[in-house]
Amino acid sequence: MALSDGDASKHRRKRKLYHALMSGEETKVFELCKRIPEGPLHIVSIHKDTVLHMATYSKLQDLVLKLLEKLPENESHKLTHQNDRGNTILHQAATSNLLVPAAQQMLGRAPELLSMGNFNGEIATFRAARYGKNEMFWFLDGQVDNIRVREGRDVYRKVFYQRTDGTTVLHISVLTEHFGLALSIAKKYEFLVSKRDGDNMTALQLLACNSSAFEYGCFSRLFKRLFDCFEPRRRRTLWGTIQNQKEKHELAMELAEFLIERDISWEDTDPVVDEGKPKIHKYGEASTASEGQGKKIAETPLFLATKSGCKEIVEAILKRYPQAIEHIDHEGRNILHVAIMYRQIRIFDK
């Protein structure tokens, strides 16, 4: 089917705009927007992204600020446009610390952007936490605080810090290994420490499953042995990698200790299994453990850390709460059973 002259002209315009945006030609983009009735709000991608969406996603801060300035005041309400993933321009800005001034301008024009979620239920604060953008997260957090002060009431924090599936900003910053931000969030909003996601997991339980975050010792010893084999330029790169891994490890440990201090899940234990009558068959009435097999039960951080071989978290929990070693899960297992079953007996090595 052939395109009409009008459609052909529209596609040429979109092609030029798209190419200019992808090439970072800010002046050309701005000039092209002047010739389009919708201006910066012109939809330019098949995913319903506007020029402002794409300029923001591409981190072209100067262009974003100029486009916002060009938009008439009586069209500010149109800044709440969402693409086909539900993301607004503030969601796009939340992925970069460089765009804090642009985010400030966006909220000045359309304050409702702050509380708008995408189709995953993520507010811009959540996106900033996902990408580990400290400056952006705390700027947006400050805007949430301003609402409370301005309106004289406490806002519904859940809207700003928890996704529709239960995942919080603390969960997501742990999952994406932004441990410094996660620690700051946990310290300011301690109520998030005990929050559970859709899988019934707390932030500490998620951290306990990530043994790689605590592997600095093996990592550094290996690379330090190889250090002299590299030329000076590559040594600098290698040294930077070692330092980054060291910082990540230290932050992960600091976060773990903070969360462990506030976790007493090990107190919720099953009774010691009655061994008065050994059983060598599977007949008769079901045991309490087997009856609960169909139920989804999230294990304690102690057992999750044991399963994943995260020795540092196991040691930190037992150092603070030595009686936690007596914990028995819903299947009648203690920590030694779990360590043997998952071949992680090394966690008891000194």
CATH topology of the domain at 201-268 and 296-350: Serine Threonine Protein Phosphatase 5, Tetratricopeptide repeat
- The rounded distance between the terminal residues' Cα atoms is 75 Å
Radius of gyration: 26 Å
What is the residue-mean pLDDT, rounded to a whole number? Answer: 84
Beta-strand residue fraction: under 5%
Structure summary, number of beta strands: 0
In DSSP terms (H or I, runs of 4 or more residues), the helix count works out at: 18
Main sheet makeup: none
Poorly predicted runs of 5 or more residues:
286-295
How does CATH name the architecture of the domain at 201-268 and 296-350? Answer: Alpha Horseshoe
How much helicity do the residues have? 40-55%
Protein name: PGG domain-containing protein
Question: Mind explaining what this structure looks like?
Answer:
This protein is mainly α and 350 residues long. It has a domain of 123 residues: Serine Threonine Protein Phosphatase 5, Tetratricopeptide repeat. The protein has 18 helices and no strands. About 3% of the residues have low confidence.
